[in-house]
Specification:
The chain is of the alpha/beta class. It is built from 14 helices and 5 strands. It has 2 domains: 120 residues, abc type-2 transporter like fold, CATH 3.40.1710; 197 residues, no CATH class. The longest helix is centred in the middle third of the chain and has 32 residues. It is elongated.
């Protein structure tokens, strides 16, 4: 046999195997879509949605006096792209409320008699309270705050910095909930949600497809048990596993990394159980769509990618564009991270966190409804 014929035979077999693999790849549409969509999703999310220097951060102003200088400072804050003035407060107790609930990341307090003290050269204090549970967002904005307010004084026709022999005011920064700016206090509560999301999604996504591949689902259906009872029975062990994971992570954060638990442990447990059920329901939905275990894992990973990037875990949520924040608001992890950080670091109650708690309930209900309908359709 000549070398040419051997080479031609090798090329024919190689080409036939390549064509066969392409045909098989196009038939597995979920795998093909995953191969294409993951790099595209990463490109767009990192290119357009992720911003390590966040802007338009939600800010409130506590104005104890309504003066020309106070209005100049308020106008300067509105004109900068670092701060988004959403509330003008008149009571001191509202300052604690907006920071605790997360509706504002900064509160600038203009004290009573501030303009008179500036004109007299008394160097009054301007208080800036910041929610430092996200130290990256807080640091960049606080760094720009002094220049913003100085510009307001320079533009004011009654008060100019050049006229004063010393700084006309002092900015007192109060970094609440994380005075040292420790990234550990920010990361550990976020890890609780991301680890639960990753593990529970994969475990439950494999559950139904494993039964179908092994042929044991028919045995379950032949028993006197309803499809919904099968689904709930299969979810229950994972709820226990998820809560056990949460206890381990919280205990490690408390004893090893010194992350405090200032709020109610019962509230934390209730929200965690709700979050676990939502992830299990989403994982079961993936398992009813996938035809094999590989597809189930691929779908879970595609869902996990926007969760870790758009939930506020790795990058400041307030720094994302509006469309990125809309996607993030539709993810249970976004609301869970906010609630967990607020309970552990701020000591906030469920009542104060009503918006994120209610959003988590709604998303969990939707996920469970879809899972039940998809599960029934798959078995029928």
């Amino acid at each position: 046999m000549s070398a040419a014929s051997v080479s031609n035979g090798f090329l024919r077999r190689f080409w036939a195997m390549t064509i066969k693999e392409f045909i098989q790849m196009t038939r597995d549409r979920i795998t093909l879509a995953t191969m294409v969509m993951i790099p595209v999703m990463q490109l767009f999310l990192f290119g357009f949605a992720i911003n390590t220097t966040p802007h338009n951060l939600p800010t409130a102003v506590l104005m104890r006096e309504n003066t020309d200088l106070g209005r100049s400072i308020l106008g300067a804050l509105k004109n900068t792209d670092f701060f988004d003035i959403r509330q003008v407060l008149t009571r001191a107790e509202d300052m604690d409320r907006v920071l605790e609930s997360g509706s504002a990341l900064f509160v600038v307090e203009i004290p009573e008699g501030f303009e008179r003290a500036v004109r007299r050269g008394e160097n009054p204090a301007l208080l800036v309270a910041a929610d430092a549970t996200d130290p990256v967002a807080a640091s960049s904005a606080l760094g720009a705050l002094s220049g913003v307010i100085a510009s307001a004084l320079e533009r004011d026709r009654h008060v100019t910095i050049a006229e004063a022999s010393k700084p006309p005011f002092t900015i007192v920064q109060h970094r609440r909930y994380n005075p040292a700016g420790s990234s550990t206090l920010n990361i550990v509560p976020g890890l609780l949600g991301t680890i639960l999301t990753m593990t529970l999604l994969i475990f439950t996504a494999l559950s139904v497809t494993r039964e179908l591949e092994r042929g044991t689902m028919e045995n379950l259906l032949s028993m006197p048990i309803k499809p919904v009872e099968i689904m709930l029975g299969k979810i229950a062990p994972y709820v226990i596993i998820g809560l056990a994971q949460a206890i381990i992570i919280i205990a490690a954060g408390y004893f090893v990394f010194r992350v405090p638990i200032l709020g109610s442990p019962l509230a934390l447990a209730a929200v965690t159980a709700l979050f676990v059920v939502s992830n299990l329901s989403i994982g079961y939905t993936f398992s009813t769509v996938a035809t094999n275990q590989l597809q189930a894992v691929q779908m879970a990973m595609m869902y996990f990618l926007p969760n870790i990037l758009l939930s506020g875990f790795m990058f400041p949520f307030a720094g994302m564009p509006n469309w990125g924040q809309w996607i993030g608001e539709a993810l249970p992890l976004t609301h869970y991270i906010r609630v967990v950080r607020a309970i552990m670091l701020k000591g906030a109650s469920i009542e104060v966190l009503a918006y994120d708690t209610l959003a988590l309930v709604v998303l969990t209900t939707i996920a469970m409804t879809i899972a039940v309908k998809r599960f029934r359709r798959t078995l029928d």
